[in-house]
């Protein structure tokens, strides 16, 4: 084995070990319901919903880290058990030596009601395909004197440039909400990778440890058509910890407008036992059937020297159908 092979092997090991302690995350985490918790399946006032979100991060360092998720969920009225079902696809790709995680998960959730309280219990199961590729990496023998730069189309002697593994993954979650006079508040807890799948791309075993997530949110309607939407996420996966706190302030527009409400907000991403990461700015709008939101992370960690404080850009778009659910019953009276 040449010294160049040793360096490549060490670099691959570093990438895999580093990525194993990470999981996808979004600033607008509450606008990606099925990646937030399986219990969020069908957790809506509409019958059907499509939620999509895209995040690009650290583009200033070269090829960015990109994460995309899209989900569909709906309430199942054909079965009288307050069930909902959904499907979510997630693609997470790092730059440089590309570590790609693609997953497709099926979600099921059941609701129960007790007075002003609503409970949801969800399960999520699916298939994950993890792949490490050096297709975008060039080696010394790929330097072309004809064009004066490296040409990835030229052959190289690195035959072991692709590694892949697929595995089954299992998640679960529970959610509680209570209505109040001018809004609601809710809280939930979820556990991801309950089966601790082996995600190693090599011959050695590397079990993916469970990730526990607590989330809370509220809607507080104020006077003069104003509202507050605070939300919180706390995540822990082995020694990797993350806390994201958001506060949105918005205004409902008069009926008859195509736009139902506008909001803006700010937040922070930090660690529980580590230094902070980024400040978050958010703007968004709710229409009759859609919600669109933009988020931008301003990096203030030690990495800000390399990133010039530039962090991540995020776009979220949600479509919701009308609701046909019966919320009250009218008893007709006989007329004489």
What does this structure look like?
This protein is mostly beta strands and 336 residues long. It has one domain (3-320): monomeric porin ompg (Porin). 8% of the residues lie in helices and 53% in strands. The strands form two sheets. Strands 1-2-3-4-5-8-9-10-11-12-13-14-15-16 form a 14-stranded antiparallel barrel. Strands 6-7 form a two-stranded antiparallel sheet. The longest helix has 18 residues, at 3-20. It is globular. Residues 1-21 have low confidence and may be disordered.
Task: Please tag this protein with its features.
336 residues; two-stranded antiparallel sheet; Porin; 16 strands; 14-stranded antiparallel β-barrel; mainly beta
SSE topology:
Layout: H1 3-20, H2 33-36, E1 48-57, E2 65-76, E3 83-93, E4 98-114, E5 117-133, E6 143-144, E7 149-150, E8 162-180, E9 183-192, E10 211-221, E11 226-237, E12 240-252, E13 259-270, E14 278-287, E15 290-299, H3 304-307, E16 310-320
Antiparallel strand pairs: 1-2, 1-16, 2-3, 3-4, 4-5, 5-8, 6-7, 8-9, 9-10, 10-11, 11-12, 12-13, 13-14, 14-15, 15-16
């Amino acid at each position: 084995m040449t010294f160049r092979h040793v360096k490549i092997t060490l670099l691959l090991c570093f990438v895999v070990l580093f990525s194993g302690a990470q999981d996808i995350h979004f600033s607008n985490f509450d606008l990606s319901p099925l990646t937030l918790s399986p219990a969020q399946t069908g957790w809506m006032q509409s019958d059907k919903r499509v939620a999509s979100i895209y995040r690009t991060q650290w583009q200033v360092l070269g090829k960015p880290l990109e994460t995309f998720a899209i989900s569909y969920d709906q309430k199942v009225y054909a079965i009288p058990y307050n069930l909902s079902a959904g499907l979510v696809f997630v693609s997470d790709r790092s730059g440089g030596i590309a570590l790609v995680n693609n997953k497709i998960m099926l979600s099921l959730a059941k609701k129960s009601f007790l007075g002003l309280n609503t409970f949801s219990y969800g399960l999520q199961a699916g298939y994950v395909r993890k792949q490490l590729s050096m297709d975008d990496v060039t080696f010394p023998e790929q330097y072309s004197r004809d064009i004066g730069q490296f040409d990835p189309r030229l052959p190289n002697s690195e035959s072991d440039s692709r590694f892949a593994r697929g595995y089954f993954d299992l998640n679960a979650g529970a959610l509680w909400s209570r209505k109040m006079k001018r809004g609601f508040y809710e809280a939930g807890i979820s556990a991801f990778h309950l089966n601790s799948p082996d995600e190693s791309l090599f011959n050695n075993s590397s079990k993916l440890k469970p990730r526990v997530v607590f989330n809370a949110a509220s809607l507080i309607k104020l006077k003069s058509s104003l509202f507050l939407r605070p939300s919180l996420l706390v995540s822990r996966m082995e020694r990797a910890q993350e806390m994201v706190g958001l506060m949105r302030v918005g205004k409902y527009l008069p009926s008859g407008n195509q736009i139902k409400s506008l909001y803006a907000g700010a937040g922070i991403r930090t660690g529980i036992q580590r230094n902070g990461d980024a400040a978050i700015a958010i703007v968004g709008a709710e229409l009759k059937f859609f919600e669109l939101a933009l988020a931008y992370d301003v990096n203030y960690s030690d990495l800000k020297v390399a990133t010039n404080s530039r962090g991540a850009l995020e776009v979220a778009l949600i479509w919701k159908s009308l609701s046909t659910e019966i919320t009250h019953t009218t008893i007709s009276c006989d007329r004489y």
